[in-house]
Structure formats: structure tokens, C-alpha cells
Amino acid sequence: MDPTTSRRTFLRIAAGGAAAAGLAACGSSGPKSSTGSTGSGASAAPAGSSAAGASTGASAAAGGGSVTGNASYWFLNGQPQQGVRENQVKRFNSSHKGASLKSTEFQNDAYKQKIKTAIGAGQAPTLIWGWGGGGLKSYVDANQVVDLTDWVNGPAASLKSKIFPSAFGAATVNNKVYALPVETVTPIIFYYNKNAFEKIGAQPPQSWGDVMDLVPKFNAKGIAPFSLGGQSRWTNMMWLEFLLDRVGGSEVFLNVFNGQKGAWSDPSVEKMLTMVQDLVKQKGFIKGFSSITADSNADLAVFYSGKAAMMVHGAWTYGTMKSQGGNFVKSGALGYMNFPPVDGGKGDPSDTTGNPGQYLSISSKSSAEEQAVAKQFLLDNTLDDASIKDWVGTGAVPVVQGTRDQLAAQPDKMDSDWLTFNYDIASKAKVFQQSWDQALPPTQAEVLLDNIAKLFQLQVTPQQWISNMNAVIGK
Amino acid sequence: MAIPALVFFIAFGVVPLVGVLALSFARWDGIGAIHPAGFDSWHAVLTDPGLPHALWVTFEVMFFSWAVQTPASILIGVFLSGHQRYREFLAVLYFVPLLLSSAALAVTYKALLDPNFGLGPGLHFGLLTRDWLGSGGLAMGVIIFVVSWQFIPFHALIYQGGVRQIPASMYEAASLDGAGRVRQFFSITLPQLKYTVITSSTLMVVGSLTFFDLIYVLTAGGPGDSTRVLALDMYQQGFQANLMGPASAIAVIIVLVGLVLALVLRRLGGRGVESQLEGA
Known about the structure:
The structure holds two protein chains of two kinds.
Chain A: H1 3-20, E1 69-76, H2 81-95, E2 99-106, H3 108-120, E3 127-130, H4 133-141, H5 149-153, H6 157-162, E4 172-173, E5 176-177, E6 180-181, E7 184-193, H7 194-200, H8 208-220, E8 224-227, H9 234-248, H10 251-257, H11 267-281, H12 298-304, E9 308-314, H13 317-324, E10 334-337, E11 352-355, E12 359-362, H14 368-381, H15 385-393, E13 397-398, H16 404-408, H17 413-428, E14 432-434, H18 436-439, H19 442-456, H20 462-470
Chain B: H1 3-23, E1 26-27, E2 35-36, H2 40-47, H3 50-80, H4 87-99, H5 102-112, H6 119-123, H7 136-165, H8 168-176, H9 181-192, H10 194-208, H11 213-218, H12 230-240, H13 244-268
Antiparallel strand pairs in B: 1-2
Helix pairs in contact in B: 1-13, 2-13, 3-7, 3-10, 4-7, 10-13, 12-13
Organism (chain B): Motilibacter rhizosphaerae
Family (chain B): Belongs to the binding-protein-dependent transport system permease family.
Pfam families (chain B): BPD_transp_1
């Protein structure tokens, strides 16, 4: 196998496809993601203009329904996303006599090991839930997932046309589509607590300079500037993704992704790493951040309980904050915006990062009958009207084009503002960067996460970080 | 009679061990095909600065948890072997930590030690409000404490059995000679427990090589890599970085270290058939 070449091709497809199509970015919501459930597709997706023909909702293509047989489907648990998925399976099973889809649910981290082991042992479920990107590529390299290109462009063309084109970047390997992004778009958001800002009489930051000015002010009032679930590691990574983009533009990571030798040596990387360590040294993150996990939602609790004033986190956390944060969201105390620009930085301030979608693949070890059932499920029940309604109900933007009006029509003003904000971020972003740990192959991603954890711990200097990371480029 | 045991040992002990050894000379991502790769994995593992660090952390955990557990277990074991009032009630109480699973313990301690929502901030008790799991030295201390807390009951049980084996006549003779309880403890109990100490220490030392669940849940090897023991390093290489080759090499290293340590401990116990009992 030749990883370099294939990765390049993968990227080209991502960028090319996105450019051609309109709307950029789709992220996918990593449900309660933990270790790296962030991450989305390849890289850049230049936002085009004309939104493609958005057949809002609408029953998916092919009115089949005549399939018979059984298939299996593994996915992540964790509400509210779990409920949406369960309903999809229920609807499929009740509307398709003779066919049956059996689902099994796993916790995020457990799932990551389990699915890998199952696929390696040839025991994969028919439908494999995943994050696309580098992980999907490792399945493709091992011939474990079905090439869906012809199906997506043929029988499933009307389903494909509904989906944000840029979401296909992370589903494409060697110019071929191996997964379907059928859930939601989840960019990473800069959240702030309006009550905390009132306490110190300050405005939300407009630039990185403002952020650094706010840090001592919040600390002086006994409020931690930022919440962070640092033990999960990918949580820290979101900072690097945004800062590198804002400082050096999206090309810097693109070079890394392309396997260009020494790509981390770009001067903007060292600048970005120094900024991160400065923030750590200035006590920008809540005390004990490196022992807080995102799985437990303790990082959210720190934020909505007012112990921390700001937080950079995935859009999927909105639903959790709303349901668990008491009056926090309802009272209007939750503020949100895109990550602020860095003075003198090269990046486009509309750029975002996160998950362009969640991806369903079909195991190549499954029988023709099982594959037919799985495809029918994808067609009929993943982005049908009911699913879209359910996803919107969880506070997430479905990976479907042209839903802005529907999102804006939510009865709850908080929800409709939030949803349209997300839709705009995702659709107007010049570049929607898939989370690094998902875009890169697992080996490189692990070294990255390891070094990021050490960076936040001040165990490595920016120079060491760069040379550690350069050493694994292309691996 | 030994055949079923032998079959199980070969099937679940020897075969996987050989498999891991073979894998350490291969390149495999856990999903695709396995390719022979010669000494690549070994080269990668042995030149990785992470290995000496993980070894060092492993030995730290091993040594300190041994140093905490052994005296505590002996004292509790001696106490439990006596005939004081409430002894049985206390014995049951001491035994509780052993009944809990490591993962459950870790989750509980993690919640209790949380610097924002844990016991310290909850009770407004400043001394307990620390970044227990978020700063290197403290995190190591917490792990050693929790490990010891969990396993002291088990070793106390071993020592209790050991102490009860000591003939009462020795103590009677000693008290006739005027030895007090402290003197009896050091001159009779401890020497008589020599083999029990070796057994218990072997279990502690070899067992601590494979601590995984507890550390994984408590710190995941963090902060940074401050508490990344060998077993955790192996897991991260194998199941997170998809590098089954290097992970297998680390597994082989763990096995070797364990064997060497067990051997050394056996040697420490002497090889003769000397008996420590009276009259021998």
C-alpha cells in the first residue's frame, strides 16, 4: 500500500468535490464524543455559492421496501443521539415486512476498540457507524468495506443530492465513496457564559488579544477563563486546530495531511504552540483540566455552573447543556460565536473545524442480502423527514442542504437561533476542517494526541513538539 | 490428573504468548493482513524514549506500592490472626475494597478527587481540594494509594494465614524468656513469615506489571505521560495507534520483566530445604 499517494488523492477529492459543489462544510456531531470523536472529513471545503437543489427532508430515493432478510447495525449510545438512531431502526423494521435490522449500541470509547476488533476478526456488523477520514481509510486498505460509489451515483443519487457535498470528503478514499454521511453537521463552537462576562463587565472577545486580556480579569474574580476536559486529549486538540488555522491559514495542516515532509516546521506552527502554552501558563484553563474527561461531561458542568467563563467545544454539547444545565440555556445565559481571529493571522475568520458528518459504511464481509437491507435502510430511514425532525429536535443541524428555513421555524427561539447559527457557520465556512485525529491515519493521530497532551502539560517545548510530529508525517 | 490444567495452560497461556512473540516480528494494524517485518517493531520500541519512561513509571508504581502494602499488610495480618474483640467484624470491613472491581474503584476515586465537584470542594475542605489527578507527582501518589488500598486486604489475608501457622509454643518460650510483644514480633513473627513475605511480594510485584484498568480510568496515563505504565503503553500502541507489532514487542518485554522479577524473588528466598520450624 502506498499511503502517501492514496492520502493525496483522498484530499484532492475532498477539496475538489467541495469546490464544485456549493455549501461547504458539514460536520457531524460526535455524540458525546470522547477520544477523538471529533474529526471530520478531509480538509478544506471552499464554500461555494448556490446551494444545491435542496429537497428538504423528503423521503429518500428509491421507493424500494421490498427487501427481505436481516442485517445488523452497530452505533453509539448516549442521548439524545441514541434515541434518534433507535427510532430510525424502529421505523425501518415496521415499514419493511420481511426485512429486519438488528441494532447494538456501544459507548463511545468501547465502540472504537470493539468495532476495530470485530472488523479485524471478520465479524463486523453489516452497517458500520464511524467518523470517516483516516479510520475509514484503514478499513478500505484492508478491503473491509464496500465501495458505494456506483450505488451513491445511481440508485441513491437523490439521497446524495440532499447531503452537503463537503461531507463526502471524509467518506472518500482513492476517489471512491465508502461511506454515507447521514446524520448531522457539528462544527466546534466558542461558547461563553454571559453571566460571567457581566460579573467582570467585559464583552465577548473579538480577537486573540481580547482573549488574553480577559484571562487575568476572570482569574481575579475567581472564575476560570476556560473550561477544558483535558484528559480526553482531543478536547485540547480543538484549540490547536483553530489557532493554527487563524494564525497560518488552512494550508498548513493540509500539507501535513498530504504527507509533505517537515510540514509541521511551518513558522505558524511554532507560533501557535507558543500561544497555547502561554494560555496554559497564564492559567487560562480551569484548575485540574488535565484530569477532567469529556465523557463524563464534567467539562460542560464546569462551564454551565459558572465556574468557567468560556469553552471551546463541539456543537453536540448544546443538547447536553440544555438538558443538564438547569436554567442555563433557557435563561439565555449561553452565548456562542465562531472562534475569534488572531491579529495578523493569515486564516479566514469564517473557517471552522469539527465533524462534517457521521458515516455509515457497509461491511464487505456481509452477504448480498444483508447489504441490500442495509442500503434500503440508508435510503429510506436515515435522512427521511422524521429523522431530520428528530435531529433538529436534538439541537443539531442535519447534514442536509437547504434546511435553514426549517431550522429557523423551530418554536423555541433559543433553539432556532442556535440551529441557524450552526447552519450558517457550516455553510459559510470557507474551510471546514475535519478534526485532525479523524483526518489522519490512526498511527499518526495517536502520536499527535500524545504530544498535544504533553504540550498542555508543558512537558514538551514547541520545538520538541514539532520535531516529534515531523517524525511521523506520512506514517 | 494434570492433563486438563495443562491443556488450559497451553491453550490460554502458551499459545497466545507464542502468537504475541510472532506478532512482534510483524506489521499489523489489527484490521488488515499481517506482514512479516523482521525486527522493525523491536527497533521502533527499543529506540522509543517512551519505553524507558514507561519502564521507570512501572517500577515506581511497583516499588512504592510494595513499600506501602507490605508493612501495612503484615500489621493487619498479624492483628487479624489474633483473638481480639470485634476482630471478625473488622476483618469483614477490611476486606471490602477487595470485593470491588478496579474500574468501579477508579471511577469512584476519580469522582471523589475531582478538583471542581469532588469531596474537597463539596465539603469546602481546602486540604482535599487539589489537582490530584492533574499534576504528575500527585497523580502517581493517588495511584499508589488506590492500588494499596485495594490490595492490602488480600495480602493481609495471606499474612493472617502465615501468622497462624507459627506454632504458639515459640511465643510461649519467648515470653518465658521475657520477650515483650514488640520483641516477639521482630524475633519470631517476622522471621517466620519469610516465605509468606516472598509469596506476597511476588504477587505484588508481578501483579503490578499488569495494572491497567485502574490507571486507565483514573488518569489514562496522564497528565501527559506521567503515569503511563508499560501495560498502558502497550494498549495505546496496539489499540489506539493500530500498531500491533510494537504493542506485541512491549507485551513480550512485560512478560520478560515479570519472569526475571519472579525468578529473583524466588532466589531471595533461598533454595535449600531449610525449615524454620522448631527442632528442625
